[in-house]
Amino acid sequence: MESANRMTSSGQGIRSKATRINRTQIHVVVIGDHPIMRAGIHDLLELAPDIAVVGEASDDVEALCLVKEKTPDVALLDMEMSEMMGVEIARQLRGAASPMRVLALSAFDDEGYIFELLAIGVAGYVLKQEVLETLVEAVRGVAHGTVAWMSRRVEARMTAWAGRKLLEGASLTERELEILWSVARVGQATGRRDVRVDDAASPDEHLR
Questions:
Q1: How many other CB atoms are found less than 10 A from the CB of residue 52?
Q2: Which of 150, 173, 188 is the last residue of a domain?
Q3: Among residues 154, 70, 67, which one has the least CA distance to residue 102?
Q4: Containing structural domain, residue 119
Q5: Hey, CA dihedral for 192, 194, 199, 201, is it positive or negative?
Q6: Does position 142 have pLDDT exceeding 70, yes or no?
């Protein structure tokens, strides 16, 4: 398997793989400005036979070029990049003309922050503290269409938080209500929730 390095205007370069296309695998690009982190994530994902890392990028410009070139199934995005807020890069990736799913990787488990990312279209959220245990499962989940993928730990917190918000009947946009309902339903389906979502009004009822 041969690696090819292509320099961009940032001077960092896109690391991509000139490899035979195998769409039975989940194709992933890794985006982050720390080479050691990218290498570790790359090596971890490559242990899974159904996942192929097809490239790496260190900033938003490289990321958008890589996504256009490689058309991956999943973009794994480090949210704590130094030059640009991860939320902004996530918005740019979601705005690209691609069915690719964005999977956020972060050290923070604040419910409001996670909700903001889900609201802009991020498909899943992985805590850096849980990477070894959850990353491969998360990549598979979002690639296969899971909405609002989260680890059990984060899911338990977000489900309770979403249920409280729905029960409070706060003034929310239609998109916010859809996301809250999706998060709450994830917990209901797995039985890990401490708020009865059935008692909360549906998004349609909130919008009446």
A1: 21
A2: 150
A3: 67
A4: 2-150
A5: negative
A6: yes
Q: Give the CA-trace dihedral at 151, 152, 153, 159, to 10 degrees.
A: 100
Helix/strand/coil (H/E/C) assignment for every residue in 166-192:
HHHCCCCCHHHHHHHHHHHHHHHHHCC
Q: Indicate if 82 and 166 belong to the same structural domain.
A: no
67 and 146 in a single domain? The answer is yes
Q: Dump pLDDT digits (tens) for 114-128.
A: 988 988 889 999 999
Tokens of 189: 């389906």
CB 155 within 8 A of CB 167: no
- If asked whether residues 170 and 69 sit together in one domain, one would say no
Question: What is the model's pTM?
Answer: 0.77
Do 79 and 95 sit in the same domain of this protein? Answer: yes
Average pLDDT over residues 131-153: 91
99 compared with 132, residue with greater pLDDT: 132
Residue 66 and residue 127 share a domain: yes
At 46-62, the pLDDT tens digits run 999 999 999 999 988 99
The answer to whether residues 188 and 162 touch, using CB atoms and an 8 Å cutoff, is no
What's the number of domains the chain is made of? 2
Q: What is the CATH number of the domain that holds 73?
A: 3.40.50.2300
CA distance 7 to 13: 4
DSSP state of 85: -
Whether 21 and 119 map to the same domain: the answer is yes
